[in-house]
Amino acid sequence: MASSGLTGKSNVVIALRHTKDLNLNSILDELNIDSGIDWSFGTGANAANVLFHDQRSTDDTGETIDVYEGGSETTAFGDALTMEAIKLLYIKNTHASLTLEILGTADTAIGICADPSDIIELPPGGIFLWTCPTAAGIDTTTNKNLKLASKTSGTITYDIAMLGLD
């Protein structure tokens, strides 16, 4: 049975203050960015009907998540992961010292990078957030693989969330 609703918001907040003392005065430079997407249930722009999230670990041989056919991957409701298009990808490297490699699965990588063999390196504590709120999202029926691996020997932990269309 398909889910009947999915709503929420993905949001980025950056609030930074930088000061410099000059003689008797202080200069303040402030950066305030609050940008987000309100998501609704469905198939149009800013809409999705599949949510997958997990806390995982892998080593330097890595693991590949088949976003389209899922294999043994399931949603929180126990439904097989079958995402035909991806609209949001969030990954946080929760490891204290190892670097997490994302993507790099040759010609079957999900279409986030122009070159499917590109690898994104996420340092310890680093966060990767990518969104595509268009009605179509990024097709994952052919380019369906999301590879994650530790850059060096060792087991690495990470959090992952994906939002898309079934």
Count of DSSP H/I helices = 0
Shape: globular
Beta-strand percentage range? over 45%
Q: Tell me the distance between the termini.
A: 12 Å
By secondary-structure content and strand pairing, the structural class works out as mainly beta
- Rg calculated over all Cα atoms: 18 Å
**Can you summarize the main beta sheet?**
5 strands, antiparallel
In the CATH hierarchy, the third-tier topology is known as Jelly Rolls
Secondary-structure element string: EEEEEEEEEEEE
Describe the structure concisely:
Helices cover 0% and strands 52% of the residues. It has 166 residues and is mainly beta. Strands 4, 6, 9, 10 and 12 form a 5-stranded antiparallel sheet that branches.
Describe, in plain words, how this protein is organized in 3D:
There is one protein chain. This protein has 166 residues and is mostly beta strands. The chain has no helices and twelve strands. The chain has strands spanning 8-22, 25-41, 47-48, 50-58, 63-66, 85-93, 100-103, 119-122, 127-131, 138-139, 145-150, 156-165. The strands form three sheets. Strands 4, 6, 9, 10 and 12 form a five-stranded antiparallel beta sheet that branches. Strands 5-11-7-8 form a four-stranded antiparallel beta sheet, with no helix packed on it. A hairpin with a 2-residue loop joins strand 1 (8-22) and strand 2. The protein starts with 7 loop residues before the first strand and ends with a strand.
